Amino acid sequence: MKWYDLDSLDNRSEERVEAMVRRVEPMLQAFFRPVVRGVDRVPRGSALYVANHNGASMTPDTFIMGAALYREHGMDALPYGLAHEVAMQLPAVHQFFVPLGAVRASHANAHRLFAEGKKALVYPGGDLDSMRSFRHRDRVVFGPRRGYIRLALREGTPIVPVVSSGAHSVLLTLDDGRWLARALGLKRLVRTEVWPIALSIPWGLTVGPTPPYIPFPTQIFVEFLEPVHFERTGPEAAEDSAYVEACHERVHGAMESALKRLSQERRRARRARMIRWFRRPTGSDNGC
Length: 288
Description:
The structure is a single chain. The chain has 288 residues and is an alpha/beta fold. The chain has eleven helices and ten strands. The protein is globular and about 70 Å long.
């Protein structure tokens, strides 16, 4: 089993990416009926994609987003994923994601990517967002994490917010289990602040990170928002806490507004499908 250097930018294979898109995209289309918008808004050159995180151990919206970018713009628009080191050290996860472009999440790796005019993807909410309770599915949960803003300001690179709706319905997270994570000291031990209680197929009720599961069928909407350029950039701007918070509110606010709009659109589409289903013809009257 091959192990990669998580700090190398040379692990990504276009052949692996193309094969993944070719094999996975038809399944994504059939199972999630994705609607993707705004791919034309992606700028040339370096950029930081900032996305909401969904679905715990499975994130179908990530693959939907990547396939759309690759189809529209090729490898230039496809981001490297700044990934959690602990997750990327897991067997199989490591061998699957690193050739697709995962690197260790660090400011040094991000700096090298942007210096080469490449793009990076971050999920600032991480575990807080991907394992949030189902009742908060229409929220973007970043918590106190502002490193993504400091990174963009320090590097002087624009942020491209990416919002997905529906991907958090692939399982049912009853509770994010923050209280349990605190009680077990998991932030210190494994760098997680949540220990979710969830229902999924085929595992039923689970406590803790959900093993790979069969997702509930749900329609997923993904939208790339307008790039966000900041008036002030550089190290001083990145160290200005008030300015960092204001930039965060700008990005986070735009993402939450988009998520609520997309969620409402999904609900309308679901109602329309149900109405069509109930009104479908039941067969001709044969006169008997």
